[in-house]
Design brief:
This protein has about 475 residues and is an alpha/beta fold. It has 2 domains: about 375 residues, Alkaline Phosphatase, subunit A, CATH 3.40.720.10; about 55 residues. It has 13 helices and 14 strands. The strands form 4 sheets. The protein has an 8-stranded mixed beta sheet with strand order 6-5-7-1-8-11-4-12, sandwiched between helices.
Amino acid sequence: MQRRHWLRRFGGAGLALLGEILRQRSASGRERLLPPGFRDQSRGFGRAKSVLVVVASGGQSQLETWDPRPEAPSQVRGEFGSIQTAVPGTRLCEHLPRLARLTDRYAIVKSMSHEDLDHGSALYLALTGYYHARRSSNPTPRETDHPFYGCVLEQQRPATTFLRSSVLINGPALVPWEPGPGQYAGLLGRQYDSLMIGDVTTDQPAVPGLEQLEELTPRRQSLRQRLLSELQPAGPFAAQSMADMNTLYEQAFRMLDRPAARRALDLGAESTSIRDRYGRHRPGQACLLGRRLVEAQVPLVTVIWNHSNRGQDKYPDDQEEYGWDTHNDIFDVMGRSLLPRFDQSFSALIEDLDQRGLLETTLVICMGEFGRAPLVALERNFAGVTPGRKHWAAAYSIVLAGAGVQGGTIVGAADRHAAYPITTKYGPWDVTATIFHALGIEPGGHFHDSANRPYLISTGQPIFPLYGSDG
């Protein structure tokens, strides 16, 4: 077709589309250009007041959790059986009885897939939605890293009711002994780092130093703040370090000025029965604090369910150190520790949010950085004496609930060995898109670094089948 004929035939539609593009661009320069009626068709957009993400660091096995294969050969199926759930036709691992009773309240995505096969870079992918430059490796955090999705939210939607828009609990995630990349603001700058809280089972304040001293009157606190601002070193080498330190000081003073924030961080305010229901261990109490922060209207809370991805190699007698990276001894470690604890704490979180009327406006996500191989085998290069499973990113499962997600839904499917998707694939980029979409932020919009250079919030698309729509 000649150009003149093309313009004559399609020019009217093209001008109409251009007009719509310009209209949307003038409405919001940071929003992705979407077809008219998009928000009306997508019930998940802006439905969440908060998003709570639970990260099962180390690579949670899909075969021992959300996608068991009871009909597969034993070397694929493994030692555990499966149980019927509240949703006919949906089965879970036998070690998840509490979660099996709640399947009508959450959806399972069984066709997650990507191409990164090592924990550090795959964790980075899970927490940013972008592949690391060194794929399938264990890099250290860098200032040039793509920012954690929580840090992007800090820039896009600064905190109004709480201290920060994003809080990360039980962090940082260790891979296995050093903090992994993807948990920090990276190229955004330290001022956008999420508030990071460590072990909340130490009987110490979640954020040390927030106790209000009786002798520190508001006037004395103001004088100390003024004195601090006057004691600023000069010189080119002090600039960046002092800017970072001033950011931390500013956050600390804001915390001291907000009693409601201190109360939200106080697990001691919870009843004994609730704390017992979640589990008196690091993952359980971290999930409980996550629920308290949702009540305090924190927009984005990320719970690192296990702070080390494979601490059992170094500390076999300390279950607090166990992670989901089960190269060997998978059935012992998961059956004795990981699965019972996970069943307790994650089911408590779902039930508690639902009973308090918070699940309707809270998107809950449970995900790891990848899954495990559909073959049980002993790996000689790792600790342990019984077989386990290798890393596997070609197919794995995640769980979502709340904020319009249709409970009882199964999205996607893998083959008979849970090895490769046989339906539409979804990746971590789609998870980040779903997070921002749920919070009412267009995933295809942009954030800007310190030099005002634009970056896409997400390269993915929201997982629309979660909401009963294909988008």
